[in-house]
Amino acid sequence: MSSLYSVPGLTANLRFADDIDLLAGSREELSDLTTRLDDMAKGYGMEISTEKSKTMTMGSASDVPSQEVSMGGELLEEVDHFKYLGATITGDGKSEKEIRTRMAKGFQALSQLTRINKSNNISTSTKVHLLRSVVFSTFLYGCESWTLYTSSEKKIEAFEMKCYRRLLRVPYTAHRTNESIRSEIEAAIGVHKHLLQIVKECNFPGLDTLQDHHQVLHKPSFRDQWKESEDEVVPE
Q: Quick one: pLDDT at residue 209?
């Protein structure tokens, strides 16, 4: 399907399977995009769920004139965050909530390695490689779009060190510095990239520029979930 709307230099919609985000610079433009999408869906015999469709303003809501967005005669709910492809998108443009979510999922993955980490028959090197492959990869999902601040960077570093301490079975009562923990990990697997360094290298190019130009972030985004009619097939 061709692009629904085109703005020079800007992306007007993000699509992956049946998950669609419409991006607009004003509520009037968003309303127009919504109508275009709804009309095109109906033309292919599909129905968009208004219950699953939400609107969200990026940045300060006071910067955007109040105007409700509707579809098919039904008003769409406005939210301050939503999930897109498993990642949490918030209206303030920050990634603190998503980073906390990824940390929780990372610790959950780490708990599944408890028996391996307690085993004396498995080398520290193997344990570290497993941690970095299973736990860190779980944590890093979607990190390309994270907005990093000093506070979030400290959280990422703390998460990494907590994982290593659990792997090495270092009790809280042991007053070991982070440097000594890193030295032991490096002795096991050699020189390696720290987790924060990986996040920064994966970060989407130009994201800092978007942070500087806040008006680019102050754009409502709209999420649609398409629900295909049971008796209709979309022609190729």
A: 38
First to last CA, the chain: 9
From residue 24, alpha-carbon distances to 64, 166, 175, 181, 226 in Å are 11, 45, 52, 48, 19
How does pLDDT run across 217-235, given as a tens digit for each residue? 333 333 433 333 334 443 4
CB atoms within 10 A of CB 34: 23
pTM, full prediction: 0.70
Rounded Cα distance between 168 and 209, Å, is 40
Chain-wide mean pLDDT for the chain?
80
Other C-beta atoms within 10 Å of 199: how many?
Answer: 21
The CA distance from 142 to 152, in Å, is 15
Alpha-carbon distances of 80 from 60, 104, 221, rounded to whole Å:
11, 21, 11
**Lookup: tokens for 2:** 């061709």
Cα distance between residue 64 and residue 37, in whole Å: 22
- Say if CB 22 and CB 220 are below 8 A apart: no
